[in-house]
């Protein structure tokens, strides 16, 4: 998926939101006319004292920020959960470092990125898992591009990749399906709940779920996968499960890609313990 396609889709999405809001306001205005009321279209009391509609979240600013092709590329590069320097992001987006700095400042100002300093270097990462969830969700709406070159890279990222810090692609969705089928996880109003059997299983797997549930981060929830169009496991539990599989030597991180490598040991373990067979390195 190209950056310009994603930015175009985002702009279309925000335009749709704006049209829906405008239609709602026009409807209210028409109702007032029919009833012979002369009250203002949106009263101050609806938004609190000294508040107006301008105090609502500024969706147009967010659309402008993410809709820029360079900035959406930067966000995509950071989707694997690692922190990168301005120089690395400039190289990855094929722009000059000075230009990259201006784009990064905008992303930090709009709370999409966090910046930390170490010595002479400044490192940038996604501000939260929610930002990654936003980008992944937009990828679901973005049109698929036609292949013009080797299919290997595209197949690899669709088979197994990191979505911020949890597993996505065929591997992520299949794992989630197995956890649900075995009753280790249960769905509940847009989130995942851990069963007693699941708590025991994750503990045996080396994951302290009770400690995870005490963290400020949302414990477990479904994240719609852009390539599979099905849910994969996100949240603190999804991130820790991915980390544990890396620690066990089942999976490996790519240095400059979101693609997840699956080791021979990992292939055997995934097949034996989860009944999952994947066919790429």
UniProtKB/TrEMBL annotation:
An example Gene Ontology molecular-function term: DNA-binding transcription factor activity
Source taxon at top rank: Bacteria
A biological process (GO) of this protein is:
response to lead ion
What SUPFAM superfamilies does UniProt report for this protein, alphabetically? Answer: Winged helix' DNA-binding domain
Which is a Pfam family this sequence falls into?
HTH_20
InterPro entries the record matches:
ArsR-like_HTH, HTH_ArsR_DNA-bd_dom, HTH_Metal-responsive_Reg, WH-like_DNA-bd_sf, WH_DNA-bd_sf
Domain HTH arsR-type positions? 51-146
What is the name of the protein in this document?
Transcriptional regulator, ArsR family
UniProt source species? Collimonas fungivorans (strain Ter331)
């Amino acid at each position: 998926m190209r950056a310009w396609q994603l930015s175009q889709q985002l702009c279309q999405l925000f335009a749709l939101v704006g049209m829906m809001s405008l239609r709602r306001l026009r409807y209210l205005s028409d109702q007032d006319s029919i009833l012979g009321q002369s009250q203002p279209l949106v009263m101050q009391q609806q938004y609190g004292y000294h508040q107006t509609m301008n105090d609502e979240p500024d969706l147009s600013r967010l659309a402008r920020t993410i809709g820029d092709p360079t900035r959406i590329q930067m966000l995509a590069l950071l989707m694997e959960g690692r922190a990168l320097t301005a120089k690395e992001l400039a190289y990855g987006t094929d722009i000059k470092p000075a230009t990259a700095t201006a784009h990064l400042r905008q992303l930090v100002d709009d709370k999409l990125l966090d910046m930390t300093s170490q010595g002479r270097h400044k490192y940038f990462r996604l501000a939260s898992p929610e930002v990654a969830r936003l980008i992944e969700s937009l990828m679901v709406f973005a049109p698929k591009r036609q292949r013009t070159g080797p299919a290997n890279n595209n197949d690899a990222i669709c088979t197994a990749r990191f979505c911020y810090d949890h597993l996505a692609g065929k591997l992520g969705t299949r794992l989630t399906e197995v956890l649900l089928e075995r009753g280790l996880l249960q769905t509940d109003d847009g989130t995942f709940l851990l069963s007693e059997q699941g708590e025991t299983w994750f503990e045996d797997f080396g994951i302290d779920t009770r400690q995870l549930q005490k963290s400020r981060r949302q414990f477990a929830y479904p994240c719609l996968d852009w390539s599979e169009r099905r849910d994969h496991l996100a949240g603190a539990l999804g991130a820790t499960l991915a980390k544990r599989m890396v620690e066990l030597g089942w999976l490996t991180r790519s240095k400059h890609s979101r693609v997840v490598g699956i080791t021979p040991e990992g292939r055997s373990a995934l097949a034996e313990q989860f009944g999952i067979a994947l066919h790429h390195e």
